Amino acid sequence: MKILLHICCGPCTIIPLQVLREEGDEACGFFYNPNIHPYQEYRKRLETLDVYAGREGLRIIREEGYPMEAFLRQVAFREDERCRSCYHMRLNRAAQEAIRGRFDAFTTTLLYSRFQKHDLIRQVGEQIAVKEGIPFLYKDFRSGWSEGVRISKALGMYRQPYCGCIYSEKERFFRPAAAGDLAGGPGP
Fold first, then answer.
1. Which of 21, 41, 165, 185 is deepest in the core (most CB within 10 A)?
2. pLDDT in the model for residue 42
3. Does the structure show a pLDDT above 80 at 92?
4. Which domain holds residue 96?
């Protein structure tokens, strides 16, 4: 089959690409991630993917521009549902690109990560497949997690420390101060 593989980053591409190729599928990458913040992080992930794709002979389709505002409009004041909105936005765009490019199905590297909401990704992907009329190829790539991490480190790939959105960055790095502990010390 000819598969459009939505890609979130280079390291998460390793195992899904390997599995698809081992199964005889032809994969083409699609980088569409308006959720990634800040822009420097977005560029770093895209550049890492470009290097890996060149090494593996993987064609990458990418959206020009950086539509971060569209992502923020989808999730503002709905932070508890931000992952669903984010998955929907990215997978819906991947399905549209798959139809345009006459692919047999679409899938995503998000199904590789142990840190993503796997059941929700599957649910959203399958809903979009029905709505758009193109199959969502569900694969649980998580069994290759350790191998993918090992390979990405051996290749010296940039490995991001958070999912991508401003909310996940906060969850990863922000630690509330203890009660009575003021930033900057005591006042005048």
1. 165
2. 94
3. yes
4. 2-172
Q: How many CB atoms lie within 10 A of CB 153?
A: 11
Q: Is 55 within a domain?
A: yes
Is 179 domain-assigned?
no
Coil, strand, or helix at residue 145? helix
Q: Give the 3-state secondary structure of residue 34.
A: coil
Position 75 scores a pLDDT of 83
Asked if residue 105 belongs to a domain, the reply is yes
We report the CATH number of the domain holding residue 11 as: 3.40.50.620
Residue 95, amino acid: A
Considering its fold, how many domains does the chain have in total? 1
Binning pLDDT at 50, 70 and 90, where does residue 8 land? very high
Residue 180 lies in a domain: no
Q: Comparing C-alpha atoms, which of 108, 82, 83 is closest to residue 94?
A: 108
172: left (phi over 0), alpha (psi -120 to 50) or beta: alpha
The yes-or-no verdict on residue 127 having pLDDT over 70 is: yes
Cα separations in angstroms, 71 against 2, 68, 74, 77:
28, 5, 5, 12
